[in-house]
Amino acid sequence: MPVTIAKLQTLTTWAPKGSWHPQKAPALRHARNSCVSIALVNNMPDAALEETELQFSSLIEAAAGDVAVTMKFYSLPGIVRTGRAQERVTNEYFGVDDLWNSRFDGVIITGTEPRQPDLRKEPYWAELAKTFEWAERNTKSAVLSCLAAHAGVLHGDGIERQPLTDKRFGLFEERKTCDHALLRGASDPMPFPHSRWNELRTEQLSAAGYTVLTSSPEAGANLFVKRKRDSLFVHFQGHPEYGAQTLLKEYRRDVGRFLRKERETYPNMPSKYFDSEATRLLTDFRELAVTSGRADSMKSFPEQAIANRLTSPWRATAVCVYRNWLQYAASAEFKRVASATGIWSEPVFKQRAL
């Protein structure tokens, strides 16, 4: 079933392959009577703003099944925007006051690239903390993605993230660490993409009452949960929403930063992501780039030769987990609609399992 995106003046039904179908705004009032409502608080940097919209819309659409979903986009005003991204947020995103004065079945909150070692010193911290507090009272479940997960446990439990000696970057095979409804039907082990410079440690999370659901020896805890007031908070240190080429784009960005002298070391390739031919091409490029030391070497970065070789082996697991999450966020509303239409005879998700 397609995902309906609410915009300031119109509703847009999201469909795969980027096709957009505008509808008139009054349809939203009707849709709310029978659809699950999801807020996406998209705080990603300008370059990733629209791609993040697409990633989460696509994932929710793939996971929705028979559940009709409406989504509204927000971004915290403390996130600095320029150019096209600022125009998009101004014209197509709802203001944060609309968020704080609304209730949703679920919310997804993303992070952004931090500028301060202490997240509490970021200019958007007060707004982000208020969003967490709002979500505790006004959603059935909240997903906190990567940096937002770090910020959430810092705000809620005072747990400081720990810096890594190198970027945790690539695909990591994780195992289930307990039985939980969010992992119902998921493979074990399962791959997840990660891209971060910091970590939250399992022992600290467990001591603060979080339940770790997936973990790997190399990447540590990834998926963990905790109930906060009225909402189940779901945290990912990794990025199940990523597309097949996202890690390649991030690697290319980091290589460019090295050649522009914005970082001291040449970045390592993402772990277990590239095949042997892609690895060879990128190794050859590294030798060329390091020798020349010129930023214009990026013109010969072999992105196109590699991009079509990439797959997303984590996608099935991501869809499975988000399907379970969406059905949980939808449970009361979906049961009412399903019973009225005769398409479901019992609850789709048993809350006691959470």
Question: Key terms for this structure?
Answer:
globular; 4-stranded antiparallel sheet; alpha/beta; 354 residues; Rossmann fold; 2 domains
Structure description:
The chain has about 350 residues and is an alpha/beta fold. It has two domains: about 5-240 and about 315-354, Class I glutamine amidotransferase (GATase) domain (Rossmann fold), CATH 3.40.50; about 245-305, no CATH class. The chain contains eleven helices and 14 strands. The strands form two sheets. Strands 3-2-1-5-4-6-7-14-13-10 form a ten-stranded mixed β-sheet. Helix 2 links the parallel strand 4 and strand 5. It starts with a strand and ends in a 13-residue tail after the last helix. Mean pLDDT is about 85; it is low at about 15-35 and about 335-354.
* N/C terminus separation: 26 Å
The poorly predicted ranges are 14-34, 334-353
Q: What structural class do helix, strand and pairing data support?
A: alpha/beta
Number of domains: 2
Tally of strands: 14
Number of helices: 11
Strand content: 15-25%
Outline type:
globular
The pLDDT mean sits at 87
Radius of gyration: 20 Å
The CATH superfamily name of the largest domain is: Class I glutamine amidotransferase (GATase) domain
- What is the N-to-C order of secondary-structure elements (H for helix, E for strand)? EEEHEHEHHEHEHEEHEEEEEHHHH
Strand order of the largest sheet: 3-2-1-5-4-6-7-14-13-10
Characterize the largest beta sheet: strand count, sense, and whether it forms a barrel.
Answer: 10 strands, mixed
* CATH secondary-structure class of the largest domain: Alpha Beta
CATH architecture classification name of the largest domain: 3-Layer(aba) Sandwich
The CATH topology of the largest domain comes to Rossmann fold
Question: Helical proportion?
Answer: 25-40%
